[in-house]
Amino acid sequence: MGLVYIRNAAQVVTMAGPNDKPRTGAAMSELGVIERGGVVLEDNRIAYVGTDEEAARYVEQHSAGQEVTVIDATSKLVTPGLVDPHTHVVFAGTREKELGMRLNGATYMEIMNAGGGIHYSTTRTREADEEQLIRETAKRLDRFLEHGVTTVEAKSGYGLTLEDELKQLRVARQLHEQHPVDLVSTFMGAHAVPREYKGDPDAYVRLITEEMIPTVVREGLAEFCDVFCEEGVFTPEQSRVILEAGMQWGLLPKIHADEIVPYGGAELAAEIGAVSAEHLLRASDEGIRAMAKKGVIAVLLPGTAFFLMTKPAEARQMIDAGVPVALSTDRNPGSCPTESLPLIMNLACLTMHMTPEEALTAVTINAAHAIRRADRIGSLEVGKQADVVLFDAPNYLYLQYHYGVNLVETVIKNGRVVIQDGRRLAG
After folding, report:
1. CA nearest to 108, candidates 279, 268, 240, 265
2. Which of 89, 318, 328, 403 supports an S-S bond with 346, CB 3.0-4.6 Å?
3. In terms of Cα–Cα distance, which of 94, 83, 79, 81 is closest to 39?
4. CA 379 to chain centre
């Protein structure tokens, strides 16, 4: 493929630094900014990052016999490819009618108990075949890519039977192989108790632990196991059983915690050593301190709180307590139907009072840690995967200042330009 030389950027945000653990506290503001910078890519790896003068010298010294593709980044901001560590991107059907119900005062659980919410999406997803799911999900991944997102975590959880959970995970694996966006799969059969088990949720827990998890692992379909630990869904005791069963089979634990009421989810995440706890709108002070002590990453979803018209998570308290924070869209059909991770950064600043520096850290290196990929993505460092975004912005502060629009101009995935002038290239 030769060399790709990204030249004369107004700023390059490298996120360079120790990659052994996610960033906390003041370290979340350390972006590694290079003014008038340059980046050199070779094949699918980052070969050099520095000032443009240094990058030009590197190209001159290493270009003999190689084709050099030059990308002019004058007046542009260059960042690592953005990472979304919490989505439910594989599903069928939409739920726009629920917006009117919420505007008329219906709660999340009221909508779900009336046959909407997760149950509605489960019905539509069960009805869809793999071909339909691939087609619909690929469109969403295209939109993610257009917004600078090059890696996405994808949870199951809209099947809630063995075969339908496997169907979602197989679709995610196929799209990971076919689509430019990398997908990291999480098994979440414990997204809700299906209607057919409403009278005996413990029987469904046994189905998850005794049949679903072993089959998922045998087929190599997931790396993580997640559970919706929430009042009216899975109790902390049931959640522990599910996550520990996943751990016994080699699945790393994640947990939807304390979204609607304080329920001990953050505390459970710390007790079992979860990679991340997610949502956390109602997490207790004790839970936040326990997460900080154990290094559990808080994956916060301000777009979900915004769309559900509720108070967001206490990001400032978490950061000040030493909890590593990541951000995500929570892309799903009901509570956050957006693929715009830049919008989520805007909301993190405007509704959770995170700084622009913290927000950018939370969608790059910390998000990479939340899916155990920080050794290869999340920063622009020599040897890492060549995932790069060029924004039509003079500096990183402008991303949060000029909010609610897509400033992505160019996206490079694995060393190949896939978005040019804001549009997806064929192939």
Report:
1. 279
2. 403
3. 79
4. 15
